[in-house]
């Protein structure tokens, strides 16, 4: 019976594939034709176009012809683009036309209809869909429910259908390998098959096995802020990339990939995920790290790097200051401070030329505050610039006939003079007029730097302004509520000043600094971006999120993270959701929780979740593997030998391994040891490196978001992981492992593993 089903399904698939091939042929012809047409139009254009500029009518006619040609070319270009994209999808469908079938019966219909679901839709006749796109409304039924009555959203509202069959196919090169009939939401068997695969250096799409909870994230169109809290490995990143593809499909024509931006934890991660959307037949969205986003705007300052931030040791008062600077309270204080600036307090710089002051900062200040109270910061700045430019023009007018300028003109040679004349006709009424003209031209050149300094608002003194803001903080915020006293705060300000003098800045100062600059210059947000995604949201400060929200005022936000993996913001992350509610006040906020972890075997998930204080919410997926192994040795040399042996074992078992340490310095040491032992391992030093296949050694802060077949946590001893606030870091490291986890420690294991009961791991 099974064989008959398989044969029948294969026959249908063969039939669909041959139709796909025919469609490919047709597309190829269209592409060729569009190319040929373009070529001909261009040829025609140069042969026939007589540029007639003799009369107005002639000019008009020439312009019209050019416009017509351009339109024709544009049309051909569009049809070429469309056909090329279509061909790309068809080629993908040819190897694997679909992965699922559902039979469903609508109310009032007498027999069920079969729907086949694939990466894209395909019809041989209008309205005769042989394949439905996985993002089509009806396809939701496949991901959302089992057999029986299932509802799905359509543009006309909720529809209910009776599902009588759910079938899944494993297909390779157009051949059906296995068929599963299931009443599960998405058959666990299929998911097991997919998850059993070993890792690659690129993330894959999960389109065939999207889970019900994930489907909710993917298809949500109502929330202004969608907050996805999910355990490590629960598919947050995967779901969100599918969501981008979904939104691009759902809003085709109104949303392009360049209007979607994803903030990711590091550059390595960008590299890791960059195949998912192309695999789904879509273009990649804009991707950047928050660091790149800010650094781009501060080319002259050296902003603290991820590594420096991660490895910085803070005193108690420093960490309180950092916490305050990161908060929404601070964001609001900055807004109050800015409103005061409308009356007083702006800091300006002298405008100088060759060391000589042209406009003193007090003069600029007077101008700035000379406008009435209806002027806000932005107009005040514009009006000041205008006034300064006027003054500069007046100065030029006045000096054009002055003695010093005349002397210079007298001494100028022909070449210099002809440069001053430029293309201006030399038909002056008299000598004076000509001298005046030349004088002005000369002075415009002479004062060019001042002109551009005014235009670029270089008279603003943003460093002094930021320090002034920091010094005003005790008047704006009740420091004692943040367990700080004025002296500690002042000390902090002095630290910021000292760094600024060296051209450096801490990460927590970057966002408030840019925010202040934007408020003063009245920079408006980017209204073109419609969807903003932030991965690993727990590592963002509320200030940064608030700043992003004002930078992209028209965008909807999808933020995802795991409060248990806050390796930068640590415990503060647990209040993040409350802070988000303040930032997105009056907006529609939806929270989705993903608790099941798909990445790791049951044994690894059950082990890692016990490291957490509140790990109960993490559910493991029934995929069996070995127990994690903890190896505590007295002697580091011996342990290194065992490390090498473990790496060899992993290689034999064809598992790619990441040796993860806390810091880069530790990584460097262990990678030298491996090298000395003749073991090949690539050290990942910076986020700008590429992810290599084979064994890698990587610091924890760069392993964020990534996964490996096997993980070795190195130096897991009591000295290295002594603090309670490193619990989340330990969890993040261990939860990178898919199939095998080994933990190595010299002498005594970190107490952060004390909570794990002994029958969840093996001791070596
Ligand atoms: N529905 C699914 N079908 C198949 N594989 C899935 C599914 N959901 C998640 N996975 C797999 O589980 C692994 C973890 O997914 P992902 O990296 O998206 O999780 P995450 O929640 O972002 O993890 P982390 O927070 O730890 O970085 C990936 O290998 C992904 O392909």
From TrEMBL:
InterPro entries: DNA_helicase_UvrD/REP, HelD_bacillota, P-loop_NTPase, UvrD-like_ATP-bd, UvrD-like_helicase_C. Keywords: ATP-binding, Helicase, Hydrolase, Nucleotide-binding. GO terms for molecular function: 3'-5' DNA helicase activity; ATP binding; DNA binding; hydrolase activity. Residues 209-601 form the UvrD-like helicase ATP-binding domain. Pfam families: UvrD-helicase, UvrD_C_2. ATP binds at residues 230-237. SUPFAM superfamilies: P-loop containing nucleoside triphosphate hydrolases. The keyword Nucleotide-binding applies. Residues 1-37 are annotated as: Disordered. One of its GO terms (cellular component) is cytosol. Gene3D superfamilies: P-loop containing nucleotide triphosphate hydrolases. GO terms for biological process: recombinational repair. This is ATP-dependent DNA helicase. It comes from Liquorilactobacillus oeni DSM 19972.
């Amino acid at each position: 019976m099974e064989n008959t089903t398989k044969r029948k399904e294969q026959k249908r698939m063969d039939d669909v594939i041959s139709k796909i091939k025919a469609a490919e042929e047709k597309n190829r012809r269209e592409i060729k034709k569009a190319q040929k047409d373009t070529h001909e139009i261009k040829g025609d254009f140069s042969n026939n176009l007589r540029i007639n500029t003799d009369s107005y009518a002639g000019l008009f006619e020439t312009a019209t012809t050019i416009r017509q040609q351009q339109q024709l070319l544009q049309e051909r270009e569009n049809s070429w683009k469309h056909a090329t994209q279509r061909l790309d999808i068809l080629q993908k469908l040819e190897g694997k036309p679909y992965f699922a079938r559902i039979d469903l019966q609508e109310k009032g219909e007498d027999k069920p209809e079969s729907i086949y679901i694939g990466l894209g839709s395909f019809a041989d006749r209008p309205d005769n869909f042989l394949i439905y796109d996985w993002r089509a409304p009806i396809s939701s039924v496949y991901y959302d429910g089992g057999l029986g009555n299932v509802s799905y959203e359509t543009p006309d509202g909720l529809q209910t259908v009776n599902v009588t069959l759910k079938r899944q196919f494993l297909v390779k090169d157009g051949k059906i390998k296995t068929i599963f009939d299931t009443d599960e939401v998405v058959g666990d068997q299929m998911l097991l098959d997919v998850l059993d695969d070993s890792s690659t250096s690129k993330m894959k799409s999960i389109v065939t096995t999207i889970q019900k909870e994930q489907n909710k994230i993917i298809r949500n169109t109502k929330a202004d802020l969608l907050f996805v809290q999910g355990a490590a490995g629960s598919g947050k990143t995967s779901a969100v990339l599918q969501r981008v593809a979904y939104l691009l499909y759902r809003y085709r024509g109104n949303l392009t990939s360049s209007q979607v931006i994803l903030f990711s934890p590091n550059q390595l991660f960008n590299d890791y995920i960059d195949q998912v959307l192309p695999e789904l037949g879509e273009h990649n969205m804009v991707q950047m790290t928050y660091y790149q986003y800010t650094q781009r705007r501060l080319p002259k300052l050296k902003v603290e790097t991820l590594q420096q931030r991660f490895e910085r040791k803070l005193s108690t008062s420093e960490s309180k200051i950092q916490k305050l600077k990161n908060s929404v309270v601070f964001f609001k204080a900055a807004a109050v401070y800015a409103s005061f600036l409308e009356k007083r307090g702006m800091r300006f710089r002298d405008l100088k030329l060759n060391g000589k002051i042209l406009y003193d900062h007090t003069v600029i200040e007077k101008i700035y505050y000379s406008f009435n109270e209806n002027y806000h910061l932005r107009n005040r700045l514009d009006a000041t610039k205008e006034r300064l430019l006027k003054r500069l023009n007046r100065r030029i007018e006045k000096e054009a006939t002055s003695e010093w300028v005349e002397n210079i003109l007298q001494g100028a040679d022909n070449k210099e003079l002809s440069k001053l004349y430029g293309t201006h006709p030399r038909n002056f009424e008299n000598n004076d007029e000509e001298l005046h003209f030349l004088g002005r031209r000369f002075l415009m050149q002479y004062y060019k730097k001042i002109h551009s300094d005014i235009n670029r608002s270089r008279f603003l003194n943003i460093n002094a302004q930021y320090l002034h803001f920091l010094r005003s903080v005790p008047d704006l915020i009740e420091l004692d509520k943040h367990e700080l006293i004025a002296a500690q705060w002042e000390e902090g300000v002095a630290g910021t000043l000292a760094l600024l003098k060296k051209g450096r800045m801490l990460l927590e100062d970057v966002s408030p600094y840019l925010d202040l600059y934007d408020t003063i210059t009245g920079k408006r947000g980017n209204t073109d971006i419609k969807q903003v995604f932030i991965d690993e949201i727990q590592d963002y400060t509320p200030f940064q999120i608030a700043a992003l929200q004002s930078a992209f005022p028209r965008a909807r936000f999808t933020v995802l993270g795991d409060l248990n993996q806050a390796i930068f913001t640590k415990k503060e992350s647990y209040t993040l959701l409350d802070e988000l509610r303040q930032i997105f006040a009056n907006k529609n906020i939806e929270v989705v929780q993903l608790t099941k972890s798909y990445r790791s075997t049951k044994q690894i998930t059950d082990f890692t979740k016990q490291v957490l204080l509140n790990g109960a919410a993490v559910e493991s997926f029934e995929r069996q593997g070995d127990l994690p192994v903890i190896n505590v040795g007295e002697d580091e040399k011996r342990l290194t030998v065992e490390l090498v042996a473990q790496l060899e074992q992993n290689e034999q078992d064809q598992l790619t391994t990441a040796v993860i340490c806390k810091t880069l310095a530790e990584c460097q040491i262990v990678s030298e040891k491996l090298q000395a032992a003749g073991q090949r391992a690539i050290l990942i030093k910076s986020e700008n490196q590429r992810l290599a296949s084979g064994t890698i050694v990587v610091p924890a802060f760069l392993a964020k978001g990534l996964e490996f077949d096997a993980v070795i946590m190195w130096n897991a001893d009591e000295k290295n992981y002594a603090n309670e606030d490193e619990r989340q870091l330990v969890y993040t490291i261990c939860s990178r492992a898919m199939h095998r986890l080994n933990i190595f420690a010299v002498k005594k294991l970190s107490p952060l593993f004390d909570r794990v009961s002994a029958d969840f791991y093996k001791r070596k």
